[in-house]
Amino acid sequence: MSDLCRARLKIFGRVQGVFYRQTTRDTARALGLSGWVANMPDGTVEAEAIGRKDLVEQLIAWCWQGPPSASVSDVRVEWLEVDNAPARARFEIR
To answer: What's the rounded Cα separation, in Å, for the pair 7 and 57?
Structure first.
């Protein structure tokens, strides 16, 4: 599938303790993406999404907003090779 892509996201701001991971997982699953989301020790949230490029881009756009209690200051995106992605059936919280 030529439009399949993989993106690693690092989200900055007030993104921990505001249900960011849960709502990211729910949004990604609704879009049919696979991957993961996790809190990082530095206070950021990281995620990796695999799926159709237009759907991954929708998740990236959503990450700029996040859930109502979040305050996102930056979303950094790194596009990765799909071939090296571990197979995941669902989008999960780590």
So the answer is: 9
Active-site pick, 8, 14, 29, 39 = 39
Mark whether 39 is an active-site residue.
yes
Active site residue 90: no
Alpha helices in 5-74 (DSSP H): 20-31, 53-65
With the CA atoms of 65, 37, 53 and 73 taken in that order, what torsion angle do they form, in degrees rounded to the nearest 10? 30
| Tens digits of residue pLDDT in 21-51 | 999 999 999 999 999 999 999 999 999 999 9
**8-state DSSP, 3:** T
The catalytic position among 21, 29, 84, 90 is 21
What pTM was estimated for this model as a whole? 0.92
Q: Please name the helix (run of DSSP H) or strand (run of DSSP E) that holds residue 35, with its range, or none.
A: strand 34-39
